[in-house]
Q: What sequence folds into this?
């Protein structure tokens, strides 16, 4: 493995520079976390070896490892980003509580920071004393740098991001909208978005993460989100990968669920050259429930990999998973992951489904949901489908006067709608609806129907 | 045997039509002329080509016309795409209406109505006008308003699907409606509702071709002409009384001469 580090000289240089020049107000304990993560990254690097590596079997990250991405630490991008830039390019509503990070740095100008009644919403690096202990107790607890080079790298460069802490019994009324922008100001650059959400008992929030680029530069987004749900808390979570098609995006989300908690997520992807969405939910208390939905659209030569794992460690848990793909051009998508039911997780009820709509003969889907069950009294099921638009369906629509393009647009919109409709806030739903219905401009040849 | 009306081209004129599906010739030289204001019933045993006729006129892609001509208002239909035929005023009520998961019925109808208006150089219909039109037409076919808010045909009963076809026909106001086995799978109440709907849509300036295996639909809708299709050809034509004769005697007495 030592030779692999040669590839990472830019990261090493940037890491050393960052450690030598600490930012004002930086939390001292963070540098320890960073140093140990960097040491680990030096040992394991990125998962470029795929043989025998089930986690990365279908996705090649060598192009990331072989490219040079500058760390945008010193760029004061906040200066060059206007509010309009953000509003026009992301789901946005002035009534939401909006938090913006530009090139990985929390932007005080563009964000609605909130410190009241025990609630904290704001930057990770300027946490008030009242919430510093909670931050320290939870940050890095739900991800592991040991086994995952991307988590290690993100943690090595962890200096900023978003921290949300909702105290016991508080139902946060507005949508929390987190926007991560890659500016491309310095050419090809890497950003390390980081989110930590700590939900105390019986609290609830609706939170959305958007990842987008404001340039046509190549970029690497290495994102990590951690969510802790204490007993009885509820999180409605959504995530949108909408970068330009030269961007590499590796997003890791880790969710820890206590008893009676409920986690619902919708994971949307549209952009990126190579995208990876790695979501792991640990159900670590009885009667917790998670509902994971996803919608991925790939066109051209895009590659999207959803790696979703649900781990039932305690009894009476429920998990529901529905991911849907739309694949056009020569694109490729991967759906992988497992539902793991531990010995003690009796009476688990788990369903896992992945459906795919192929608009082109050249698109490819590798879908392999799987179950590992070590308890004997459970109800679990899984399935995967892939299909083209049916010729009879198209003839029916055309016989009503709709041309192929309109028929295709309506069908794709309806197909995507099943997932989009699960998103709560109207404004976000409308945004996603537009984003997906306009995405396939010229229906592929398969749209004429496979007979 | 069917009179031409003056100098006006017939609404539909089919001459010696041959149609193959998957290299098998189904229609083998069919002639038919339909004028405005007429209702024609096409009857015949299973496999005689009734549905093939309806589907070819609507432009189903896998149906290959190998010979002959089909003129609509004097112009050939054969080179036109299905959507072009629809916008010119041809409508096919499907024997097996297709389910469109997630596509709401009103949304589908709005797109269809707008496609036709666009063809005629008109603007999209306003939401308010569309709503008014839809409410008016749902009454004609006795469809529950709730049905149009559901996905097209998804989870509909057989009767609801057929009524939805008639609703679409009412919304699009075609010049030539082809109804493919619209009576199949309907109980007596549903049949009456569907037939009433069709009767209300009869006008002096449009025409209908009813494809049916059984005579019972014709108890509710009186055709001007009845044609018997056997082995891809019309072997006998007559008035409404022919349908009753078929009901009484079956198809065998007609089939025999051609199968010798």
A:
């Amino acid at each position: 493995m030592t030779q692999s580090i040669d590839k990472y000289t830019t990261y090493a240089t940037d890491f050393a520079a960052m450690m030598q020049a600490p930012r004002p107000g930086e939390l001292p304990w963070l540098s320890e976390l960073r140093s140990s993560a960097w040491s680990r990254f030096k040992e394991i690097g990125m998962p470029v070896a795929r043989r025998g590596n089930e986690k990365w079997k279908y996705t090649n990250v060598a192009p990331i490892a072989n490219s040079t991405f500058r760390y945008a630490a010193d760029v004061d991008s906040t200066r060059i980003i206007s509010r309009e830039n953000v509003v026009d390019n992301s789901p946005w509503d002035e009534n939401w509580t909006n938090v913006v990070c530009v090139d990985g740095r929390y932007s005080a100008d563009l964000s609605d920071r909130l410190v009241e009644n025990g609630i904290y919403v704001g930057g990770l690096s300027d946490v008030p004393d009242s919430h510093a202990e909670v931050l320290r107790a939870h940050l890095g607890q739900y991800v592991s740098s040991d086994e995952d080079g991307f988590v290690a790298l993100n943690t090595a460069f962890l200096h900023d991001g978003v921290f949300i802490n909702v105290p016991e019994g508080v139902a946060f009324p507005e949508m929390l909208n987190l926007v991560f922008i890659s500016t491309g100001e310095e050419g090809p650059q890497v950003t390390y978005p980081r989110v930590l959400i700590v939900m105390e008992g019986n609290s609830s929030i609706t939170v959305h993460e958007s990842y987008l680029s404001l340039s046509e530069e190549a970029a690497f987004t290495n994102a990590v989100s951690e969510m802790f749900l204490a007993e009885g808390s509820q999180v409605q979570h959504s995530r949108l990968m909408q970068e330009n098609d030269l961007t590499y995006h590796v997003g890791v989300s880790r969710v820890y669920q206590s008893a009676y908690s409920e986690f619902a997520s919708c994971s949307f992807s549209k952009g990126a050259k190579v995208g990876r969405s790695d979501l792991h939910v640990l159900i670590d208390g009885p009667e917790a429930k998670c509902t994971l939905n996803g919608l991925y659209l790939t066109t051209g030569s895009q590659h999207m990999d959803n790696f979703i794992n649900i781990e039932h460690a305690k009894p009476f848990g429920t998990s529901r998973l529905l991911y849907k793909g739309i694949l056009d051009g020569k694109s490729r998508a991967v759906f992988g992951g497992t539902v793991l039911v531990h010995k003690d997780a009796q009476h688990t009820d788990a369903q896992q489904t992945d459906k795919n709509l192929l608009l082109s003969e050249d698109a490819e889907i590798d879908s392999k949901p799987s179950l590992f069950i070590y308890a004997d009294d459970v109800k679990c099921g899984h399935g995967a489908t892939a299909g083209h638009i049916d010729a009879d369906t198209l003839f029916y629509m055309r016989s009503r006067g709709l041309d192929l393009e309109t028929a295709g647009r309506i069908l794709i919109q309806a197909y995507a709608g099943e997932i989009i409709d699960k998103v709560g806030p109207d404004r976000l739903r409308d945004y996603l609806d537009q984003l997906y219905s306009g995405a396939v401009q010229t229906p592929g040849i398969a749209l004429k129907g496979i007979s | 045997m069917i009179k031409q009306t003056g100098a006006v081209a017939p609404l539909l004129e089919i001459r010696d039509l041959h149609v193959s599906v998957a290299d098998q010739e189904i229609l083998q030289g069919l002639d038919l002329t339909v004028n405005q204001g007429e209702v024609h019933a096409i009857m015949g045993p299973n496999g005689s080509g009734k549905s093939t006729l309806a589907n070819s006129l609507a432009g189903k892609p896998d149906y290959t016309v190998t010979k002959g001509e089909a003129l609509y208002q004097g112009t050939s239909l054969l080179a036109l795409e299905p959507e072009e035929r629809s916008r010119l005023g041809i409508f096919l009520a499907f024997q097996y209406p297709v389910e469109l998961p997630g596509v709401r019925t009103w949304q589908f109808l709005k797109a269809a109505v707008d496609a036709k208006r666009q063809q005629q150089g008109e603007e999209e219909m306003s939401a308010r006008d569309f709503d008014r039109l839809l409410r008016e037409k749902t009454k004609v076919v006795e469809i529950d308003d709730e049905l149009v808010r559901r996905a097209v045909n998804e989870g509909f009963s057989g009767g609801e699907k057929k009524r939805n076809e008639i609703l679409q026909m009412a919304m699009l106001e075609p010049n030539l409606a082809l109804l493919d086995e619209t009576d199949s799978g309907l109980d007596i109440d549903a049949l009456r509702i569907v037939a009433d709907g069709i009767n209300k849509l009869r006008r002096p300036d449009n025409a209908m071709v009813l494809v049916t295996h059984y005579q019972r639909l014709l108890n509710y809708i009186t055709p001007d002409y009845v044609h018997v299709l056997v082995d891809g050809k019309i072997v006998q034509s007559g008035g409404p009384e022919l349908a009753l004769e078929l009901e009484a005697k079956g198809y065998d007495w007609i089939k025999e001469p051609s199968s010798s």
Remarks:
- The interface with chain B takes residues 390-393, 395-404, 406, 410-411, 413-415, 417-418, 448-449, 451 of chain A (CB under 8 Å).
- The longest strand of chain A covers residues 171-182.
- The mean pLDDT of chain A is 91.
- Residues 391-451 of chain A form one domain.
